[in-house]
Amino acid sequence: MFTDVLFGLPVRKPWLTLFIVALFAGLFSFGAQNLYFRGDYKVFFHDDSPELIKFTEQQDRFKAAQGIAIIIEDPSGNVFNETTLNIVRELTELGWEFPYAIRSSSLANFQYTTADGDDMVVEPLIGDDNSLTPKNIEYIKNIALTDANTAGVLVSRSGQLALVSVTVQLPEDGGLTEQVIEIVRHTNKIIADAKEKAPELIFRKSGSIALNDAFGVAAAQDVRTLIPMMFAAVMVFLGLLLRSWRFVFATMLVLGTAVSMTMGLLGWTGHYLTNITIGVPMLLLTLAVADCVHIITGYIHGLNKGKGQTEAIKYSLELNFIALLVTSVTTSFGFLMMNASVSPALIDFGNLAAVGVMIAFILSVTLLPAILALMPIKTSTSRVDEQDESMLKIAEWVISHHRKVLPIAAIVVIASGFLMSQNELNDELVKYFKTGSDYREQASFLDDKVGNTTLTITLDTGEAQGITKVEFLKTLDAFTNWLYEQPEVNHVSSLVDVMRRLNKNLNGDDPNYYKIPSTDEMGAQYLLMYELSLPYGQDLNSHVDFNKSAVRVTAIMRSLGSKGMIELESKVEDWLDKNASGYGYEITDLSVMFAHIGASNLKSMIVTLPLALGVISALLILALRSWRLGILSLIPNCAPIIVGFGAWYLVSGEINIAVSVVVSMTLGIVVDDTVHFLTKYRKAREEGKSVEDGVRYAFVTVGRALWVTTVVLCTGFALLATSDFVPNASMGFLSAVVVMFALLGDFFMLPAILLLIDRKAYLNKKASLVESSCR
């Protein structure tokens, strides 16, 4: 027999099977020692991503490396006092001692220029030898709150916050995450020491280093809490639903082995973990449960039909193998469709999950039967009979009310489709972290006070020393003023502010000369004189490129989200095209990168959706050997996704980078229930049963397994929804909703469709046979 050949080894020689599985599991799992974690924003972009290349080139050109900022808040609302300014000065000096530091900037070492006769004096605003008398403090305050290069940048316009910014240059050959942790630990120590000296002050962290650290902190929190919670939840639900610690043990052994082998394979490839792929173990713990539950419930069903242990295992494998194979392949294919994503983190997630699902399938038809063959099982038929009776009641209700079910289902799907269309794409980087998390709270606070998002524009003259020419400075001046007029923008950092001040200084500090120089020669001389006067580490490299051919303009604003950022970017492009056509420009920044990746990712997922539907439908037609059932399966497979995204509009209404892949991810998962139901239904129909009896048979043989696996899947995804990393949490919540509606669709919509459409085909075929016999 087929089962004797295919499943003979696990049943007849379970110890040999266990040895072979243990050998491969050990070999695969050993690779996990090579795994490491990368918690930086670059993991979301391909190395050849245009957005990343543009951003990296801009950083290299202007020596605008990564950094961390210490925000100092004085609860009195005024940082201009002796204690706070001394702390600012001390932290600025200590900034040079940070790991990998190349620049430390604040009010303390801001190089302020003044006129001394015909000479220009350049000196730090708060020098080491400055005595912070009330008169000097008032002088510092007046300059800090009026100068365009400090107000809104190094100090909030309200005077409540001061900022110390440390720029770092990380070695390219180092482990980025380890370097980030080292810098953050050093920062925390510096802040702790400062807190002891001035306990009334409040200290916060910001900047790209703080962002990268937040990625790592969120991932570590998920590993510490969610994976153990997932194991515990799966064990509890399996115990309650299967009522046997032996079955729970067998299932958990399969799950643990599947996770270990999958993550070990990732390690063997020399790859790394990210905030997204860290969720794969949690995903596999839920997906692999379905295979085990179907095998176990089929095994129990066989025992209760009077079969011996060996025959019951073979019966279950024969009953479920094709369905498990098809569901595993379709689920894996759904994850593989994530290769259409523009983000490597999501591609890695999809590929790793696809491999894990197939490993779980192989273990469920090898390792699990071997364990069952070695395990003495005491079954209670009363509970099984009781649950079969419950499934029969549902089947009878659907059979009696199927003509009412379909109109109601249609209304729900149509209404959900309308709500689904109202969702808007909006990726907001700060919202990648849960409300209440340290980074989210710090970033939100800074966002409210001065703005936490930047938009950087590079203007290129195309010639050396071109930025000092009057014609260009006029364009830069007009562009800077236009940016200030935009309601989204709080502050603009531009070379034109430096040139205005230098022109005023070298004209006796006459306020009437606070404008750009009148000749090209004056502009070049002013800039050269200023640069020669600057101390080490305080040059203009972050604003001006090496040969003075291009400048970097930075607009600071509140977080806009991807929609608002793309709109602002478009307005900037329109202005530059109309008013600076003679110059080249590039617009980039982290916020711009993430704004575009979300839109590109959603577009790529939508483009590949028809292919996914076509391939999965073809697989179902082949597996079910019925084009009618294959086509009909599209309805209960697509409906849960539509309803889920409709519900998502009521919950959030915003689609981020992770939510955009839920369609591909869940499409393969929701097919599972449909396949199991239809294979049992088809088996009954092949045995000559009517449509109604086919529905009853499907409910009795697979109904229990479907709701058990759905409960576990929903629990797993619901736990993922508690992740500190919001993309994972959003993906978990929406997936749980889709999976829940998938069960409802397969319990009510699918049988109703079969009763309406397949019964007509059945009656037509029967009438044709009768007519033929009469002839």
Automatic annotation (TrEMBL):
It is found in: Cell membrane. The chain crosses the membrane at residues 15-37, 225-242, 248-268, 280-301, 321-340, 352-375, 605-624, 631-651, 657-678, 698-721, 733-757. InterPro entries: MMPL_dom, Mycobact_MmpL, SSD. It holds the Pfam family MMPL. The keyword Transmembrane applies. SUPFAM superfamilies: Multidrug efflux transporter AcrB transmembrane domain (SSF82866). It is a multi-pass membrane protein. The keyword Membrane applies. Residues 249-374, 629-756 form the SSD domain. GO terms for cellular component: plasma membrane. Keywords: Cell membrane, Membrane, Transmembrane, Transmembrane helix. Belongs to the resistance-nodulation-cell division (RND) (TC 2.A.6) family. MmpL subfamily. This is RND transporter. The lineage of its organism: Bacteria, Pseudomonadati, Pseudomonadota, Gammaproteobacteria, Vibrionales.
